[in-house]
Design brief:
The chain has one domain. Helices cover 47% and strands 0% of the residues. The protein has 5 helices and no strands. Helix 1 (2-16) runs antiparallel to helix 2.
């Protein structure tokens, strides 16, 4: 179940960041920011930030800020490519965290 929630969160990220890819992140509308803060950030905080937050970054990936999400991790690939879910590694990478 947590993996499904994380995948849904990543899909929401792609929707929030859906714009033409460029070196700088596209501007965020107030509606997108509200959606992210209310729907996406809580899912990332509950399911991803233990391993990809400020204190710990597995694979160099942080998911606790918009810029960090766009930057990606050690692979050199962006974890979210705005407007291109097929190139967004977060959409295809499975969370390795196991709940006991």
């Amino acid at each position: 179940m947590p993996r499904t929630i994380a995948i849904v969160a990543i899909a929401c990220l792609l929707a929030v960041f859906n714009a033409a890819a460029s070196d700088s992140p596209p501007p965020v509308t107030p509606e997108q920011e509200k959606f992210f803060e209310e729907k996406v950030r809580p899912v990332l905080a509950a399911n991803c930030q233990e391993c990809h937050g400020a204190k710990k970054q597995e694979s160099g990936l942080r998911l606790d800020s918009r810029q960090a999400i766009l930057d990606g991790g050690d692979s050199g690939q962006r974890s979210v490519v705005p407007g291109d879910p097929d190139r967004s590694t977060s959409a295809t990478t499975k969370c390795r965290r196991r709940k006991s």
